[in-house]
Amino acid sequence: MDSKKHIVLLGAGAVGVLPAAKLLRLPEVRLTAAADAGRVARCRREGIYLNGEKLPLDFAAPEEMGTMPPADLVIAATKNPDLPAALGNVAPLTAEKTVFLPLLNGITAKEVISKRFPRNTVLEGFFLGHASVREGNHIRHDGAGTICIGGEKAAVRETEALFRRAGIEVDVPADMTSALWKKFVLNVGVNQTQAVYRADYGEMQKSPEMLDFARRLMSEAAAAAAAEGVAGTETMAEEAMKFILSVPPDAKTSMLQDVLAGRPTEVEAFAGAVCALASKHGLPAPCNRKVLEQLR
Predict the structure, then answer these.
(1) Rounded Cα gap, residues 34 and 26, in angstroms
(2) pLDDT given at position 244
(3) Rounded mean pLDDT of 32-54?
(4) 129: pLDDT confidence band, cut at 50, 70 and 90?
(5) pLDDT digits over 237-284, tens only?
(6) Domain ends where: 142, 171, 200?
(7) Model confidence band, residue 1 (pLDDT cutoffs 50, 70, 90)
(8) What is the CATH number of the domain that holds 225?
(9) Which one, 49, 99, 142, 290, has least CB within 10 Å?
(10) Which of 171, 193, 220 represents a domain boundary (last residue)?
(11) Residue 132 CB neighbours (<10 A)
């Protein structure tokens, strides 16, 4: 019997490869990247590269998983629209012991996973750091970033210890809900502003118009968070502005990269979620409604 800890990666893209590259170095870990048959064939043929180095990832489609041990940990790092199909790809490896760690943008991933696998432990998580740049199967990242996790205490402790052994920067916030919303407010502002204006961080940092637009987007998101009872909302927008001004000017958000590459965006996970909560609580959200209409 395989005694290694079996980790399954859903989404070998701009976020997922960052922890995967370090976990691959641990002798105690077996790591499988799960995807549909078409993507598996393509990845085996072309490979996945991080900072010019080809990662020794093992890929598997659902029909190839019959003899594999169940997953101990599933790291979900897809885009939000791709998550439901990706969960189907890992279903053959999901057992009672399987723990899920979502690293998606937004605030709904845990709910989506829990609905699909109601008997499994689903943690909360997100990546906070500089954005990766993805060009096809090549990903570049400067190494600045932390994975934040929260939820069921025993699973959090075990996951944190594993990540630290792999050299992954980890944070376990005292209030994970507030931390998750803080990242969400940032994404609502910076991702959507760059997507609308087709501008990178440097262009955004020099533009009072873009910064004001981002601030208004984030203020609407923070108001929705406050209505949901989230703590610390009064400072979220301004803290996000400080982060925006600190990022290297040539960096691009994932949403801007999606727009420039002609890929679907995560606007439903950002503006869509803000507008839904604004309607629920009777709040105005004109800027997010404008973005939702424009990027849909």
Answers:
(1) 19
(2) 96
(3) 97
(4) confident
(5) 999 999 999 999 999 999 999 999 999 999 999 999 999 999 999 999
(6) 171
(7) very low
(8) 1.10.1040.10
(9) 142
(10) 171
(11) 23
pTM of the model: 0.94
Return the bridge partners of 59, or none: 33
Structural domain of residue 218, as residue ranges?
Answer: 176-295
The span from the CA of 164 to the CA of 57, in Å, is 20
- Token pair listed for 85: 């199909």
Query: Which phi and psi (to 5°) does residue 149 adopt?
Result: -135, 150
Mean pLDDT of all residues belonging to the chain? 96
122 and 69 both lie in a single domain:
yes
**Are 250 and 115 in a shared domain?**
no
Helix (H/G/I), strand (E/B), else coil: 108 = coil
- Contact between 86 and 76 under an 8 Å Cβ cutoff? The reply is yes
Average pLDDT over residues 161-165: 98
Structure-token pair, residue 169: 């920067």
Binning pLDDT at 50, 70 and 90, where does residue 2 land?
A: low
Q: SS3 sequence, 11-68?
A: CCCCCCHHHHHHHCCCCCEEEEEECCHHHHHHHHHHCCEECCEECCCEEECHHHCCCC
286-295 helix and 208-227 helix, angle to the nearest 10 degrees: 110
The CA distance from 3 to 206, in Å, is: 53
Same structural domain, 84 and 213: no
